[in-house]
Amino acid sequence: MHVRDLGEFQLIELLINTIERRSTGQITNVDTHLKFASGDDAAVWHSLGGTEILATDVLVEGVHFDLATVRWRDVGWKCMAVNLSDIAAMGCVPRYAVVGLGLQGDLIVSDLIEMYEGMLDACNQYNCRLVGGDVVSSSGFFVSVSMTGIGVRDENGYDSYEAVLARSTARVGEQIAITGHIGCSSGGGKMIRDQLKFDQQIMSHLKSTHFRPIPRIPEGVILAKNAVSAAIDVSDGLVGDLKKLCKASEVGAVVKSNKMPADNFLRDSFPNEWMNMALCGGEDYELMFTASDDVIETVTELMEIPVSVIGEVLPASSGVNVIDDDGSRLDIDQGGWDHFSLT
Amino acid sequence: MHVRDLGEFQLIELLINTIERRSTGQITNVDTHLKFASGDDAAVWHSLGGTEILATDVLVEGVHFDLATVRWRDVGWKCMAVNLSDIAAMGCVPRYAVVGLGLQGDLIVSDLIEMYEGMLDACNQYNCRLVGGDVVSSSGFFVSVSMTGIGVRDENGYDSYEAVLARSTARVGEQIAITGHIGCSSGGGKMIRDQLKFDQQIMSHLKSTHFRPIPRIPEGVILAKNAVSAAIDVSDGLVGDLKKLCKASEVGAVVKSNKMPADNFLRDSFPNEWMNMALCGGEDYELMFTASDDVIETVTELMEIPVSVIGEVLPASSGVNVIDDDGSRLDIDQGGWDHFSLT
Hints:
Two copies of one chain form a homodimer. By secondary structure, chain A is of the alpha+beta class. In chain A, 35% of the residues lie in helices and 25% in strands. The first copy, chain A, is built from eleven helices and twelve strands. The two termini of chain A are 15 Å apart. The relative contact order of chain A is 0.15. Chains A and B meet through helix 1, helix 2, strand 2, strand 3 and strand 4 of A and helix 1, helix 2, strand 2, strand 3 and strand 4 of B.
C-alpha cells in the first residue's frame, strides 16, 4: 500500500499507533511527566518547572509556498507563525525555536538572510527566541521548525493555570466559537495564483492575511486563563479541523453557515466562493474552541479581536455537519487539506 | 553570492550573526534563562525545573543516506541516533522527540513503518519518547528530528551537576581525549558504496558502525558528572569537529596521528586509507572532550568503552594541527564534511 492510498490523516493515525505500540521510553519519572503526546497541536508534559510543550511544522517550497509569488521575508514569517499558532492553540506561550533547513548551493545568501529576518520578525513579536538549527543540502527547499512553549504563568511566575487547551476535551452541549475572520487566507492564495485584480485595499488585506498570518498567542492565553475546554488552530480548514477536534473528543458537532465570520473583503471579492473558502480554505490560524455561553462571553470581552459563536457540540452519533439558514445540511466535498490524497 | 560560495560553516556563522543582531525575544525571565544558543550541539537554558536543552538534525535521502543500500529500519535508527548524540555531547539525557517528515505519495507505507520501528528502537534504548510530528508532501524524502533533553540529575532528582558540556570551555594545557574508535563509519560507507568485500566479521562490524551508530549517552553523563570542561560529538570528522571546538573555545590544539583509536578491523581493511578515515571520515558519533589528566583517568575507569588521549589544547596562535610519529605536521586536505563546498 502506498502513502497516497491512505491519505495524510490515516497515515498519521497509523504512525501514532506504531509509536504507542512500541514506546517503552519512560513517560513518568522524577522530573517530567508526559501529559499527552501525538495527536494534538503539540506534545505536553509537566516538568518540575511547570507545563512544557513542543510543536513542529515543516514547510516545503512548491507545496506550502511558491517562491515565484512570495517574498522571502514572508516565508520566514510563515514558518514561525504556523508553529506559534500551534503553541497558541495549546493556550501556552512560546519560548525557544530551532530551524532545520534543506537547500541547494545555488541559493542566494541574501535571500536566505531575508527569510531569517522574517522568522525573527515573528519571534520578536511573540517573544520567542531562535536558538539553533541545522542546515543540509537538499534538491528541494524546505524549512522545519520546532518550538517549545510553557504554560501560562500568573504574576508570581507560577504555573497556576494547569489546563492546556487540548483537542480532546470538548463536551456535548458546549458552544463552538472562533476568533477573528476566516477564509481570507484562502481567498488571498487564489487571488495570487490566478492573478486576480481587486480594489487595492482588498488586495492588500487578502495578501497580508495569506502571507503574514497572525498567530493568536494573546488570545490563546485568554482562553487558557478562563478554563476553556478544548481548542484547535484552523490550519487545514474549519470543517476539517472541527472533524479532528470532534474525533479527538469523541463528540459530534453542527456549525451554521450563516454564522461564518467571513469579512466583507472576502465576500465582495469572491461572491460565489467565499463560503467554501471560509469552511474549507485553511491557513486561517484562528483559534476554534468550545466552551459554555458564560465563558465565551467572558473571553469575548477580554479579546481585542471578534469572537463568533458558529455552532454547538453534539453527541458523536450526530456526526459533524454544516447547516444553512433553513436548517438543511450543506454538502462539504472537501473537509480540509490532505497532503497525500491530493497528490 | 550563493550559498556554495560561502560553504556550510560560514553560512551557519552568518545565520547565527543575523539571529544575534535581531533577537529581542526575552533571554531571561521569571521561568527560563537561556544559557547559550546557536553554535553548540544544542541550545541550553535553565528553567525552574533545571537545565533543559533542544537539538535538531535533518537527514535527506541522497545526501545522508541512500535508500538503495540502507534498510529503512536503519534510516530510522540513524535519524534518532544523530540527535541523541547531540544530547550526549552536552552531557544531558534525552527526553522527548518530534519528527518532521517530507515524502511522496508513492512511498510504501510498510517501509515508513519500518523506519518508525528503527526510530523507536533508538528511543527505547536511550529512554527518549517520540511525542509528535508533522508529515508533508515533498519531492525528496527527508526526516527532521528535534529532541529535548535535561541535565543529569542526582539520585534525589535534583539538577546538581550544573555543568553542561559546551564546546566553548576548553582550556589551554588540557588533554584532548575521545571515546571508542573512529573511522569505521567512514570505512563502512566506502565499503558499501564501492561494494568492497572483506572477511565476514569485518564487513558486519563496518556495516553496523556505519548504519547503527551508538550515541554515547551514558558516557556523556559520566563526563558531565565529573566536570569535564568541553565536549563535542564527532559527526563531521575528528579534525573538522576539533576545529569547531577550538574556534568556540578560542584555543588551538595538536593531535597525534599515532594516537588515533582506529581499530584493527579498519586498519586491516583499509591499510592506506584508515588514517584519513579516522581523521576526517565523520559520522563516528564518539565524544571528543578536553580535561585534566586526573579527570580523564577517572572517567576512563568509569566507562565501559575505551578512552584515548589523542592530543593537547594549545594557545589559539598554535592553530589546529595533526602531527605524526616524528613530530612533523600532516597535511589534512579536507577538515570534515561541508554540505555546500562539496556540491
